[in-house]
Amino acid sequence: MRLDKFLKVSRLIKRRTLAKEVADQGRITINGTVAKASSILKEGDELAIQFGTKVVTVKVESLKETAKKEEANNLYSVVKEERVTAE
């Protein structure tokens, strides 16, 4: 599944176009490698997403084309959240 679609379905990012913009800015990594919106995700991959001053690292648990709001949290598990200081 494409990265931008997973971010939308899992509700980590609300809109697919916004997920594409964030990926194009180089603020998302998959297993330590900078990712594009079209990058293909597999179960078990680790995503690090930078939201402003916060970096959230999540592990992909399952991939679904669609998910209800209640099911969205089951698609990933949060590994860690950390604040990033501006340098």
Automatic annotation (TrEMBL):
<dbReference type="InterPro" id="IPR036986">
    <property type="entry name" value="S4_RNA-bd_sf"/>
</dbReference>
<comment type="subunit">
    <text>Associates with stalled 50S ribosomal subunits. Binds to RqcH, 23S rRNA and the P-site tRNA. Does not require RqcH for association with 50S subunits.</text>
</comment>
<comment type="function">
    <text>Key component of the ribosome quality control system (RQC), a ribosome-associated complex that mediates the extraction of incompletely synthesized nascent chains from stalled ribosomes and their subsequent degradation. RqcH recruits Ala-charged tRNA, and with RqcP directs the elongation of stalled nascent chains on 50S ribosomal subunits, leading to non-templated C-terminal alanine extensions (Ala tail). The Ala tail promotes nascent chain degradation. RqcP is associated with the translocation-like movement of the peptidyl-tRNA from the A-site into the P-site.</text>
</comment>
<protein>
    <recommendedName>
        <fullName>RQC P-site tRNA stabilizing factor</fullName>
    </recommendedName>
</protein>
<dbReference type="InterPro" id="IPR025490">
    <property type="entry name" value="RqcP"/>
</dbReference>
<keyword id="KW-0820">tRNA-binding</keyword>
<keyword id="KW-0694">RNA-binding</keyword>
<dbReference type="Pfam" id="PF01479">
    <property type="entry name" value="S4"/>
</dbReference>
<keyword id="KW-0346">Stress response</keyword>
<dbReference type="InterPro" id="IPR002942">
    <property type="entry name" value="S4_RNA-bd"/>
</dbReference>
<comment type="similarity">
    <text>Belongs to the RqcP family.</text>
</comment>
<keyword id="KW-0699">rRNA-binding</keyword>
<feature type="domain" description="RNA-binding S4">
    <location>
        <begin position="1"/>
        <end position="64"/>
    </location>
</feature>
<keyword id="KW-0648">Protein biosynthesis</keyword>
